[in-house]
Amino acid sequence: MSMLNEKVVMITGASSGIGRGAALAVAAEGARLVLADIDASAGEKVLIEVETLGSEAIFVATDVTDATQVERLVNAAVDRFGRLDCAFNNAGIEGAMSPLGDIDIGEFDQTIAVNLRGVFLCMKYQTSAMSKTGGGSIVNNSSVMGLVGAPQVAAYSASKFGVVGMTYSAALDYAEKGIRVNAVCPGGVETPMVAEILRDQPGVLENILAAVPAKRLASPKEVAQAVIWLCSDLSSFVTGSALPVDGGYTAQ
Ligand SMILES: NC(=O)c1ccc[n+]([C@@H]2O[C@H](COP(=O)([O-])OP(=O)(O)OC[C@H]3O[C@@H](n4cnc5c(N)ncnc54)[C@H](O)[C@@H]3O)[C@@H](O)[C@H]2O)c1
Predict the structure, then answer these.
(1) What residues have CB less than 8 Å from 52, skipping those under 6 apart?
(2) Ligand 1 and 97: CB distance under 6 A
């Protein structure tokens, strides 16, 4: 059984890492896809990959911090497929790792702009489109750092706690309209973002794994499986949740 048969699913940050993994996994579940990313050349490659899996799909180059571009993205989905059923708002940046006092102010603003304002803009236009066709399911990508603090990531953590708060509030705004809003909160996932940190800071992986009960990183596919369940009708009574996908990290 395909979990997302014919559903129209939008994924932001689809060119790389968790977003690309989600695009491939969602395509395998029979969905039609609307892929978005600021990186158009990598996005076109992911488009070909999901089409090869048999998915009808479009890629729309989009900067999620730009309201006009996000509105155009949602309009493109509706123009192409007539509706929008699900969204995985995943585009995000890590920002530099440093103690709060050393965080560059422009970098703080950019982290909030992509990770928090970006999710706000996506939900603003997605909820409008979904309201017109009887509802839908939105999944925002937060992080374990949206549930607990960690050193060296004050801006990132602020943005990800913000995503969880916005998820809870939007779930209440739209519960009666049939739009479910949830978040996933991954721990460390094997992606280019994490590979970059591990390359720049030797020894970090050992420290991370020492704190993860499962003693390993997640694969993008393991995050995607949680997203697929939250998008699917199998989670029909689940809204306003922030689901850790973290090998037990936040249970400690
Ligand atoms: N990798 C992890 O361990 C981990 C853990 C928890 C949460 N996350 C979250 O998962 C999401 C994806 O991270 P990833 O690890 O796959 O990173 P990644 O860098 O591999 O992918 C992020 C994607 O977002 C895109 N992007 C960046 N800024 C954008 C913008 N302004 N508009 C549109 N697209 C933009 C990038 O081009 C890239 O394709 C992020 O929100 C991240 O915070 C990652």
Answers:
(1) none
(2) no
